[in-house]
Amino acid sequence: MAASTKKNIPIVVLAPREVPSAKFYGGGGARDTRRFVEEVKAAWSAQRCETEQEKRGILWSHLGEEVRRELTCLLDGHTRDPQRMLQTIATTYGERRSVSCLLGSSQSTRQRHGETCRAFSHRLRDAFDNLLARQHDTDVTMDKEVVASHYVSTGGKDETLAAVQQLSEQVAKLTTLLGNSQAPPTNVRRPFLCYRCDKEGHVARFCPERQREQQAGNGKPLRK
């Protein structure tokens, strides 16, 4: 009998795959900068980078030569902190407009002549994402009074704001009408008043005194 032999089972170790990230040259605008920052952070997480050197290696390998020189100049040669480097990239090449300006740009975005619905929706979403990202970076939120004053000062026309104001007025009117319908009636009917005896509760036609007079004239006994 052949002796049973144990099969060697190979052990496969799967290393975390690197998140692909295109090189950053700084000329793609705020949207390209935001995408690059998010991809670098995702690469750090996928590679399970534990040291600053590993993070810096991934970041530095995806930077164009012009961006590298700009970082070296802005950081005065201190390019060892990857978090600071990434923040400098976001500040230098990212969105610089104020929240108020981005809000006006987002609200004034309209579909262009010949533009497809898909292209318009992407452009509208980009404007909205720029606003949210800038709010997050600057920790600034817009109050509705500030938004309204912005439209007045810039002469912009916001159909949504006008519709909300009109709806608020209609709700106020309906609330007033509903309150009036539930209020107790003001015109309360007065009880019947007999003009013969000046007593309430009956009219002259059914006045007891009139009935007594009629019965007395006919010679019939009066009813008690």
List its salient traits.
single chain; 224 residues; mainly alpha; rod-shaped
Structural write-up:
With 224 residues, this protein is mainly alpha-helical. Among the domains are: 29-93; 99-109 and 121-159. It is 57% helix and 0% strand. Helix 1 (29-46) runs antiparallel to helix 4.
- Shape category: rod-shaped
| Largest beta-sheet details | none
Name the average pLDDT: 74
Poorly predicted segments: 150-156
For the record, give the distance between the C-alpha atoms at the N and C termini, rounded to a whole number. Answer: 133 Å
Total DSSP helices? 9
Helix content: 55-70%
Tell me how many strands there are.
0
User: Which radius of gyration do the C-alpha atoms yield?
Assistant: 42 Å
Q: Structural class, judged by helices and strands?
A: mainly alpha
The run of helices and strands is HHHHHHHHH
Strand content: under 5%
Give the topology, please.
Blueprint: H1 29-46, H2 52-61, H3 65-74, H4 82-93, H5 99-107, H6 117-138, H7 144-154, H8 159-182, H9 208-218
Summarize the structure.
With 224 residues, the protein is mainly alpha-helical.
